[in-house]
Amino acid sequence: MAAEESYCLSWRVAVEANNARGWRTVPSECVCHVESYMLGGQYESDVDAVVENVTAYLDGVVAADDDKDVWLLDVDDTCLSNLPYYRGKHFGGDAFDSTAFRNWILRGDCPAIPAVLRLYEKLMGRGFQVFLVTGRDEEVMGSSTAENLAAQGFVGHQRLIMRGPRFRGQGAVAFKSAIRRQLVAEGYRIRGNVGDQWSDLLGDCVGDRTFKIPNPMYFVP
Amino acid sequence: MAAEESYCLSWRVAVEANNARGWRTVPSECVCHVESYMLGGQYESDVDAVVENVTAYLDGVVAADDDKDVWLLDVDDTCLSNLPYYRGKHFGGDAFDSTAFRNWILRGDCPAIPAVLRLYEKLMGRGFQVFLVTGRDEEVMGSSTAENLAAQGFVGHQRLIMRGPRFRGQGAVAFKSAIRRQLVAEGYRIRGNVGDQWSDLLGDCVGDRTFKIPNPMYFVP
Predict the structure, then answer these.
(1) Contact check, Cβ <8 Å, A49/B7
(2) Beta-carbon separation of B11 and A49 below 8 A
(3) How many Å apart are CA A47 and CA A214, to the nearest integer?
(4) For testing the chain A interface, which of B4, B5, B7, B10 should be mutated: the one with the most A CBs within 10 Å?
(5) Which residues of B140-157 are buried (b: 16+ CB within 10 A; e: fewer)?
(6) Domain A46-212 is of which CATH architecture?
(7) What is the pLDDT of residue B108?
(8) Which domain of life is it from (chains A, B) (predicted)?
(9) Domain coordinates of chain A in residue numbers?
(10) Which of A107, A174, B21, B62 would bridge A170 by S-S if both were Cys, CB 3.0 to 4.6 A apart?
(11) B94: closest CA of chain A, how far (Å)
(12) Residue A2 banded pLDDT, cuts 50, 70, 90
């Protein structure tokens, strides 16, 4: 194996294991690796494997009939894919462009990630309350996000929880922890939690099990 | 890429991201993949990458002169390698054989993992207290472990903490959490924590940063 390919494989595993933190862009020598990973089938295979892990775990969990058993799903690159956007940004090799990214979100054109949509339908069918929790700004992106989710088949969830003015400027761990604490205070039991960023999955009240969807394109602190 | 190779890559990433839990053996279709991974250079590359992540983090951390700044390192497949043993067990494809494994440990022949030995020396050189914490049974394996570590260059650490009778039969998360709580109660600050199992790194008082060394050969709950 070429040294660069070996290095980039190591870098990608370090990202998924949460050893590499706080990185701003994909290392320039790994842009081609990430492109091949995202477009060549391995990314889909990895997402499928995570959803199989969730499904195996789900077989041992039954939702009570009090509507308090909850699954949390992140939105960006968990339910909906930003891959079409990142194709134009060297798969994360370019610095984050907040204006361009906001304009992309406002189009409401993010495609569903197929394996996660199947998981979503399974969770709904098994009587779990599904909460979609996203750091997207509610005021600016609320309607485009709700329409995008509905158009892609994410319908019937209990709540879509977005970042309101109270949490503007806070990191994802703080925002998502606050949301989870609130849900637990409302009497919900968080049975599972799925996200593409470790900041979706760390902090307070993380739930009985967490599952990390792969994402080598960007890091949200 | 062949479907099997793709599946095994996904399986390995799921293990490192802690999505796959509680598995007893390497899936039979992935034994050759794990063999190639462990012997073909990618494993060393991945361990080197983790140690580079630790080193980058270390550059922002200075040990105070009160001897209370601590790093925790696990022993098996973190400081010392059991790869020579697992070569005879289909790289984790065979079920765990407690008698054979104990006999292997009693030989005291585990080689150092070179990148972690370099990290160990760096930590000692920077004035951190290094504690080696292992689930190995103290009564049975105490002397062979201490001799093995010393022979491989792991000398001068603050303490080697092994599993005493009080923790026999307890899971690794419970045992290691109890040890960490005790260290914090003694006034130590856990600045970092390195292990090859998520059960080394989850639970109470996990430290300022945790680092996961790859290990696709076995899962310790």
Answers:
(1) yes
(2) yes
(3) 7
(4) B10
(5) ebeebbbebbeebebeeb
(6) 3-Layer(aba) Sandwich (3.40)
(7) 98
(8) Eukaryota
(9) 46-212
(10) A174
(11) 22
(12) confident
